[in-house]
């Protein structure tokens, strides 16, 4: 039973994309050696994310880092009988060892949201953490694909970009804000309302990764449900935008979206690894340096490949409601991006 469960989880990771081409995956025998580093591995997102990445057959080396608690997490997941070798690193003095040779670095480090706390409230704490971690990435694994989970993503991705620019290592194709949880939520909520199997649903989500900057494009959802009213589309949009708050409130002050975020982070990291390994037509939504709008960063569908971002896809046709949402989100997203850039350049 346990073997069947493990295979089911691994299959879910392999088959997470709506594209049938993505359903081809590598066996552990044929997959290249790939090191994945998780920074913040002992935290609420980091622990389940560490588990999910240990289950991924594309990972040969799993490097877990945190300021405390990492040896226990590493020992725990290292007992799982999958391909990757696991090493845990703890403390600032071991950050370089954790990062050396990494192909993909996932950053869930930082403090979580609590009731009544906005993503903006998290800014000063998490911005400082991200700045320090990215300084180390620039030194020890400058060519890694960096998957930013730490909130507020609308600001932490620009912070990372500025840190890498100062270090002379910035490659816009290799820096990603992980907005996959917005896509996961949009798919789930849409499938429930449209009464279609969620496994076949795809919904692009564009913009940013906070509140109204999250814009699900339900007009482009597949399969297209013609039974949804305008009011239901508005409600689905609002629920997708407020998904994080829904979880924070449901946990009554004892946590935020950790399990679903870990799942989403694992899905996006899996897509990055497939791209690096040459799997064709790997497409996911992500917050990246972009010219889709006048803003320097924007989330949209991105084709992933051996160099990270191979192509940034356009927005496609938008409904009138989505056009209004796009206009409404731009000023707020612009402000968040500028806040990150200003923080990074303060010192």
UniProtKB/TrEMBL annotation:
NAD(+) binds at residues 40-46, 66, 126, 149-151, 261. Residues 179-343 form the Lactate/malate dehydrogenase C-terminal domain. Gene3D superfamilies: Lactate dehydrogenase/glycoside hydrolase, family 4, C-terminal, NAD(P)-binding Rossmann-like Domain. Residues 35-177 form the Lactate/malate dehydrogenase N-terminal domain. PROSITE patterns: MDH. Homodimer. This is Malate dehydrogenase. It comes from Tagetes erecta.
